[in-house]
């Protein structure tokens, strides 16, 4: 079973990385990835808090969700300590240097999934857009060669699970 997962990870990693190189999508992937940086979540949450009738509800859900997700992310990343693919394989040129050495789970994907899942609970129509955006964030992290596909899956599970726990807690 672990061999199958490992094979899936390596094949998925190289398939996405090769496609990005073939179609010269590195800059697009880098910009998509950057759109998942933390300050954008704060900005969006504050804008919705100030200008949308359900902004307070979304803000509270996001705050509680990130309070669950972030410590779990740090604990998992530093406990599992999976080396990033860009540091495992020869000949990989990075567009940037990742902030740490470890890849599992993907923090960008976890955070984007928190944003998407919370938005789905409170503003379902907008949530659909955020789900697609979170999917692209995850793909961009593999495209930039800093994550394996299972890192993305783990990040998405962490993010959505954190929102579900938070939603049950504050409801």
UniProtKB/TrEMBL annotation:
Class of enzymatic activity (EC top level): hydrolase
GO cellular component entries: plasma membrane
Chemical reaction(s) catalysed: di-trans,octa-cis-undecaprenyl diphosphate + H2O = di-trans,octa-cis-undecaprenyl phosphate + phosphate + H(+)
Residue ranges of every copy of the Phosphatidic acid phosphatase type 2/haloperoxidase domain listed in the record: 60-167
Transmembrane segments: 32-52, 58-76, 111-140, 152-170
Gene3D superfamilies tied to this protein: Phosphatidic acid phosphatase type 2/haloperoxidase (1.20.144.10)
Cellular localisation: Cell membrane
Domain of life: Bacteria
This enzyme's EC code(s): 3.6.1.27
MF GO annotations: undecaprenyl-diphosphatase activity
InterPro entries: PAP2/HPO, PAP2/HPO_sf
Keywords of this entry: Cell membrane, Hydrolase, Membrane, Transmembrane, Transmembrane helix
First-listed, main subcellular location of the protein, grouped into a coarse class: membrane
Membrane topology annotation: Multi-pass membrane protein
SMART domains (alphabetical): acidPPc
One Pfam family per UniProt: PAP2
Aminoacyl-tRNA synthetase is among the record's keywords: no
Protein name, UniProt field: undecaprenyl-diphosphate phosphatase
